Amino acid sequence: MKKNYKKIALLAVLSLAATSCQKEDVLPLVGTEQTSESILVMYSINGEVFQTSISESEWDAFVERMIALAREGYEVTFSRNRSSLTSQSKEKVTFITTDEKEAQQWSHDMANQGYTVTISFDQGTGKYTCIAIK
Question: What is the pTM of this model?
Answer without folding.
Answer: 0.71
